[in-house]
Design goal:
The structure holds two protein chains of two kinds.
Chain A lengths: L1 H12 L3 H25 L4 H12 L2 H12 L2 H19 L1 H30 L10 E7 L6 E2 L1 E2 H10 L3 E14 L6 E8 L3 H5 L5 E2 L16 E5 L1 H8 L9 E4 L2 E8 L14 E4 L1 H5 L12 E9 L5 H18 L8 E6 H5 L3 H33 L1 H9 L4 H37 L12 H28 L2 H7 L8 H36 L10 E7 L6 H16 L4 E7 L10 E4 L1 E2 L2 E2 L5 E8 L3 H5 L3 E4 L13 E5 H8 L8 E2 L14 E7 L15 E5 L7 E8 L7 H11 L6 E5 H8 L1 H35 L1 H9 L4 H34 L11 H27 L3 H7 L1
Parallel strand pairs in A: 5-10, 7-9, 18-23, 20-22
Antiparallel strand pairs in A: 1-2, 1-11, 1-12, 3-11, 4-5, 4-11, 6-9, 7-10, 8-9, 13-24, 13-25, 14-24, 15-18, 16-17, 19-22, 20-23, 21-22
Chain B lengths: L1 H22 L2 E2 H14 L12 H11 L2 E7 L5 E7 L1 H26 L8
Antiparallel strand pairs in B: 1-3, 2-3
Helix pairs in contact in B: 1-2, 1-3, 1-4
The chains are: A alpha+beta, B alpha+beta.
């Protein structure tokens, strides 16, 4: 009971530490006075009486300690008091508080957002069992990073001969048209090996996953098995639990639903996939014998390392397998074997440097913001020195003052973190959309991000409090009282601390600005890359011919659709191809007869694109020699193809290739076993896959009328807004093939933008950070110099009165501000030189030490610094000497 | 050690309560002086090694609600904190006094008891 009462008393007293301390001091004073009076009556001198009274008490400090122990929660109490005091301070200076909190909020938001992106893209492990044991295996074309998909026959050999993988599965994107009572619905999916789901360690929500042998063509009496995603199940089947066993029609083939995957399941990560089917698909593609020919390399793979097998051992093993396969099936000079890469880290390899660079730049921004806030605060702390002196006189120790400083910093930083989190939470969805992150990679403002923001706030608080706390602990507080406050701010330690902070801010801003400028220049260089095609003003979509169409009928379908589209208002040109620049994916074929000379057992792999006559004109691909493909290159005409420069060089060296022949493996072509295609033209190397990297790939362009393609990208060059054409395009396609759905109807421009979006986002973020850092630097510098001028107003006035020139006053002020700036600039340039080495890998066509960038950044910073110093300097020059004389 | 400290603390608290009961509201210094004087008059040992130890005891009693504090004017016209016994404090005093007398009585009888006769 008594304990409860004491607990209650303590709780009630929480937050009253200041009052209690004051009352305690008063009580002690009363005690001392009464005791001294007693001793005086006893005949002691005043000094002796006081000494005795203190001795009787047993030391003030000890009594205070003992009492505080009784009060308990003193620590918490003291903090609450400080927090309340901070609140009062902020109410008294709302502008300062708002400025500081928004600066910190922006810096913390930027860092938290970057962390969110890093987590989504790099840190979060793939949602499968032991994802770090999952790898991908690729065909390797020798040069680093030049890996590609594999053909189905080669994949089967890998699976048969390797000793490294407990299982290996293909992973290849497919599209279907789902037959419904109304218009066909486009469905995206992947085909996988039957063991894939077991290998990944995932279980279905309903039904089962694939069984071994289910991928045999024609198994299950003509209806192949299909597994549905959670989203597709909900949207198309209303989440009905009886869906398992139902037969659905995809691309006019019947499939039996055998299972539904749980919510959130993705395969592969980042793909908005809806269905998964088996590799039986490969055998049923009527257009091309893609399951049997080594030339058709288009499959990605996923494999699980056997327990105990390292990545290095798996690579060695696959080198052995590839060497063996090369002996039985020679592939061409550029093909060197198989490459094993860790799944997740390979997927995100391109993003890693972007994320780490942004993290570093964000960290610098947080440092700059903290330094700036610390500096602003130091200026204000100096103005509060009198107040600090009073606190000290009534018993607040130096530790208490430092604690007050720390608490204020923490409160500001936490409020900043709160604002930052609001900003992040509010922008997560938009940011996710802007960065094209979805599925597994979609950004989430989860507790990790909250934790990160709080951590960032703690770091900021420490950085902010550092300088003021050191200053508070060092400077004699009593000296402040003696000096009366008016002359304060002269302490050499304090001045030095402020100048050091300014220098640090300038240095950080310099590093940020130079990094941002380098990235921006690199972005400009990328935007000026010669594409050899024009992605702007082009509308595109993908369409598959029904499976049962023979290749000639499929070709006629695409040609008649193009003819109809050409007559739509605003359409300038129409063309089609089974792949297109920057659309992702590639189709490969093989050549083993050049100009009538057989290469023996060797095959040279190249990309091939099956195009309609309008392809080159619609995409504006320059013709270098000979002619383009045309309507005369029809089914009955001699076989004709166009090569790009890289293919011309690969097969014919420096000779003029027009008139020479090649024998790409293309099925369905009538005639002898040896089909020789005559080169009729050479076109420029189009940026087919990336804007910045790699050698141009060798590409053969074959006419649709002579080769086969069951699926085409159709391109429409449009005058005016391409989006306005969408309804007409849909209607035309539906009229041509009512059973087939349109896929990926979009502007080709989008793919172009996506191709360098990470570079653009990086440059934009860096520029935003640099701009914020410049603003911070300008503000911080202005505050420091303006404060120095205000402090020395009287002195300046006196000097002017004693005959000093106004010019000298201005020069003095400028020296105050510009010296630390110069030091900061020098340090920043050195720092940026190191930072630019780190950036080098992300820079395209820009030297990391680009002198123009460095000079421009230094000039901008110098201009900002001069501006920030000039305003207070002008004020110094206007000081009225008479006023100072009156004061003295 | 702990037992001894507890014992002495309880003693001091009892003395404070008794003082306030007999003399009415007093400030800290007054209470300390009174305890000191009474214990010295009887020729006993010094109860308060120093006056400062009184203040934590006062805080504890106040937190327990046995005493209440009010600001008033001291004899030399200074603002001082005056402590007075609350109703709860009165009850506590009565209970503790009884317990103390019982313990003291029992202990005295125990210590005065003659040695038992030895069995032959």
């Amino acid at each position: 009971m008594r304990r409860l009462r004491r607990l209650w008393a303590r709780l009630r007293g929480l937050g009253q530490a200041r009052r209690r301390e004051r009352e305690w001091a008063e009580e002690m004073a009363a005690h001392m006075e009464a005791a001294v009076a007693d001793h005086l009556r006893g005949g002691l001198s005043r000094a002796e009486a006081r000494r005795r009274a203190l001795a009787d008490l047993g030391g003030l400090q000890q009594v205070q300690e003992a009492c505080r122990e009784r009060w308990a929660w003193h620590w918490l109490d003291a903090r609450l008091g400080e927090i309340r005091y901070t609140g009062r301070q902020m109410r008294r200076h709302p502008g300062f508080a708002v400025a500081v909190i928004s600066l910190l909020g922006l810096a913390i938001a930027a860092n938290s957002a970057i962390f969110g992106v890093a987590r989504a893209l790099v840190l979060r492990p793939y949602p499968y069992r032991r994802p770090n044991r999952l790898v991908q295996v690729w065909d390797d074309y020798g040069t680093p990073g030049n890996t590609g998909p594999v053909s189905y026959p080669d994949f089967r050999e890998w699976r048969r001969w390797n000793h490294s993988f407990s299982d290996i599965s293909v992973l290849s994107g497919v599209t279907f048209s789902l037959a419904t009572s109304s218009a066909p619905v486009p469905v995206r999916g992947h085909l996988v090996s039957t063991g894939a789901f077991r290998m990944l360690g995932v279980r279905p929500l309903l039904g089962r996953t694939f069984r071994a042998g289910e991928n045999r063509p024609g198994a299950d009496a003509g209806t192949g098995p299909v597994i549905l995603s959670y989203g597709f199940w909900r949207s198309q089947f209303g989440g009905s639990r009886t869906v398992v066993g139902r037969v659905i029609r995809l691309d006019s083939r019947a499939y039996t639903v055998i299972g539904v995957m749980p919510r959130g399941f993705v395969l592969p990560p980042g793909a908005p996939d809806q269905v998964w089917v088996t590799t039986a698909e490969l055998w049923e593609n009527a257009g091309r014998p893609i399951a049997t020919r080594r030339g058709y390399a288009f499959l990605q793979t996923v494999a699980r390392l056997r327990p105990g097998v390292t990545l290095a051992a798996a690579r060695e093993d696959m080198d052995r397998v590839a060497a063996m396969m090369r002996r039985t099936h020679p592939k061409g000079d550029e093909y060197t074997g198989a490459m094993v890469t860790p799944w997740q880290s390979f997927d995100t390899a391109g993003l890693r440097p972007v994320v780490s660079i942004l993290s570093v730049l964000g960290g610098l921004l947080l440092l700059a913001a903290s330094a700036s806030v610390g500096g602003l605060w130091l200026s204000r702390a100096a103005a509060r020195r009198r107040e600090a002196g009073i606190c000290s006189a009534i018993g607040a120790g130096r530790g208490r003052l430092a604690a007050q400083v720390a608490t204020e910093a923490l409160v500001l930083a936490l409020l900043g973190a709160g604002l930052g989190l609001l900003l992040v939470a509010g922008s997560t969805r938009a940011l996710s959309a802007a960065m094209g992150l979805r599925g597994f990679y979609a950004l989430r403002a989860g507790w990790q991000v909250i934790g990160f923001a709080v951590g960032a706030a703690a770091v900021a608080a420490v950085l902010i409090a550092l300088a003021p706390a050191i200053f508070a602990a060092r400077s004699g507080v009593l000296a402040a009282l003696k000096s009366g406050g008016a002359q304060s701010g002269r302490g050499p330690a304090e001045g030095r601390a402020r100048r050091a902070l300014v220098a640090a801010e300038v240095a950080l801003a310099t590093v940020l600005l130079i990094s941002a400028a380098l990235l921006a220049r690199s972005l400009l260089a990328i935007e000026h890359v010669r594409l050899n095609f024009d992605p702007h003003g082009v509308l595109t979509f993908a369409l598959s011919a029904p499976d049962h169409y023979p290749r000639a009928r499929a070709a006629r379908l695409f040609e008649s659709l193009e003819a109809k589209l050409r007559h739509l208002p605003g359409v300038v040109a129409v063309g089609g191809g089974n792949s297109g620049p920057l659309l992702g994916g590639q189709v490969r074929t093989a050549v083993n007869n050049v100009n009538g000379r057989s290469l023996g057992a060797r095959e040279i792999g190249v990309e091939d694109v099956v195009v309609t006559p309008g392809y080159f004109r619609t995409l504006c691909i320059p013709l270098l020699r000979g002619r383009r493909l045309g309507y005369r290159d029809n089914a009955t005409a001699p076989l004709a193809l166009v090569v790009n420069q890289a293919a011309a060089r690969l097969f014919f060296g420096d000779r003029n290739p027009v008139g020479e022949t090649l024998d790409p493996q293309v099925t369905g072509v009538t005639g002898g076993s040896q089909h020789l295609w005559r080169v009729v033209g050479v076109v420029a190397n189009v940026k087919e896959h990336t804007l910045t990297g790699g050698r141009p790939h060798a590409i053969l362009y074959l006419p649709l009328a002579q080769a086969a393609s069951g699926a085409q990208w159709v391109f429409l060059r449009v005058r005016g807004n391409p989006v306005a054409l969408v309804p007409a395009v849909r209607a035309a396609a539906h009229a041509a093939v009512p059973t087939q759905a349109l896929f990926y109807l979009h502007k080709l421009d989008h793919n172009y933008q996506q191709a360098f979006s990470s570079q653009r986002q990086m440059a934009e973020a860096a520029l935003a950070f640099a701009g914020l850092a410049l603003l911070l630097t300008g503000l911080g510098l202005y505050a420091v110099v303006a404060y120095a001028v205000a402090q020395r107003r009287r002195e300046i006035g006196l000097r002017l009165a004693l005959g000093a020139q106004r010019r000298e006053a201005v020069a003095w002020v400028l020296r105050q501000g510009l010296w630390p700036c110069a030091i900061g600039l020098a340090g920043g340039v050195v720092g940026a030189w190191f930072a630019s080495r780190l950036l080098a890998g992300q820079l395209f066509d820009v030297h990391p030490g680009d002198p123009a960038v460095f000079l421009a950044a230094v000039a901008v910073l110098a201009a900002v610094a001069a501006g920030a110093c000039y305003l207070p300097a002008r004020r110094a020059a206007r000081v009225d000497p008479a006023e100072s004389l009156r004061c003295e | 050690m702990g037992g001894e400290a507890e014992f002495r603390q309880g003693t001091l608290a009892l003395m404070v309560l008794k003082t306030l009961e007999m003399l009415g509201p007093m400030h800290g210094y007054g209470i300390a002086r009174r305890i000191e004087q009474v214990s010295r008059q009887r020729g006993g040992p010094r109860v308060l090694l120093n006056y400062g130890t009184l203040y934590p005891a006062l805080i504890k009693l106040e937190q327990e609600g046995a005493i209440a504090a009010r600001w008033g004017m001291s004899e030399n016209n200074r603002r001082a904190k005056f402590y007075s016994l609350t109703a709860a404090g009165g009850k506590t005093l009565a209970r503790e006094t009884r317990a103390w007398e019982r313990d003291a009585d029992m202990l005295a009888r125990f210590l005065a008891a003659p040695a038992p006769e030895k069995a032959e």
